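Annotated sample (chain length 500).
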Amino acid sequence: MEFSITALSPEAAKAGCVVVGVHSDKEQGKELTPPARRIDQVTRGALRKALADLPAKTGSTLLLRDLAGVTAERVLLVSLGARKDFGPAQFRDALRGAAAALRELGAKDAALFLVEAKVASQPLAWNVRHAVLGLRDAFYRFDQLKTKQQAAAPVLQRVVLPLSAKPPLSQALAEAQAIADGTDLAKTLGNLPPNICTPTYLADEAKKLARQFKLGVSILERADMQKLGMGALLAVTNGSHQPPKLIVLRYNGAAKSAKPRAPLLALVGKGITFDTGGISLKPAGEMDEMKFDMSGAGSVLGAIRALAGMKAPVNVIGIIPTCENMPGGQATRPGDIVTTLSGQTVEILNTDAEGRLILCDALEYAARFNPEAVIDIATLTGACVIALGHIATGLFANDQKLADEIRAAGEDAFDRVWQMPLWEEYQDQLRSNFADFANIGGRPGGAITAASFLARFTRKLRWAHLDVAGTAWKSGREKGSTGRPVPLLVRFALRHAGRK
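Output written by the structure step:
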């Protein structure tokens, strides 16, 4: 999908469809936005005559064809809801409604005048970013493994954002397209079946990105992990025939001559390409969705792809521990005790609490690069889904300034988080009679005790943990990866480097 920024008059736009907004208020009725008013004027009131057929619910649409005085073939009216309530959520709802109508219509090109709408206190650059991301998300498809595909309507190929091409807007456009590319990569990796997307496949994808964008890359094999002493990570992979990998991918985009030198941000992504639970076997129902347990890894690759694609002035290292968690004669048992890279010992009471085991060694390894901040991303606990549902990602941090930065970036990206406690009192639940601590702390506060486990390996780091178990994918009819939190990670990296 090709996007461009060009100043246009709605009535003269040469496009298959012109998209304009209409505010609806119970007291004041329907109010045309300026582009809609312009079309209404040249068509002698055609839009106002049709407004009775446009539902007031935000995102509702009404298609008008062959209006006299309008160059475009069709005009799509989109309900924006009440002007006083029009904020980021309503803007995104309107975009989704417009995208659904354009997809059904089969238009090849469109002029999106919705991008002009005033969204609370957001600048126009915010509108541009979210317009691009919203449309790219709506038109994403994963059907490459289907042998018989239904005849599809023409895909939307060109979208004009009718604005003046000022530098902040053109920069926002380039940034949004790069974020969309990175999000698409994360989605596709998540949606691939586990017999294709193995640890080796993820390592190959990292190598591919390194060749494409001239990144630094290294892949640690099982022997390397054994030599280092990554006993926790290796314990998880014991039952699998797939070899584990530790992927290290580095993007250096900040100017080397800058003083002080730009800080290094480390992103650590959980990469369990399939999680059976191991000996602590999961129930069969919906186990297929455990292919999404590598979503943290996918988001790290997607974020680095986005940052490299836009040539962002940041330095980022991605560290991805990846393996399968399978049962078998060699599999780790409940009650086994392992020694982590840090030297601390862990009693494994539940082999299905494996994500924290591979992450603890990866976080310890990340400290070797002396990062200014570390963020790990993991589909870590079902308990986080119970706590926050599928709207907000769980945020834990040992540094409040870092937590505040992540929360602000999440609001900016509309990839929102909710901070959870990380108090020392929760550590007592991890007590073990036989090792330094256990890998689970019981049902109460399960997401918190999982983060508390990781906190034992990050005391010398500025560290945050994102539990994306409820936000990384959708179930049901819309089953598939969401690509979250790629937008959040990219916006955090940019804002952290001073680009708002």
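Annotation: The radius of gyration is 24 Å.
Annotation: Residues 2-165 form a domain with the Leucine Aminopeptidase, subunit E; domain 1 fold (CATH 3.40.220.10).
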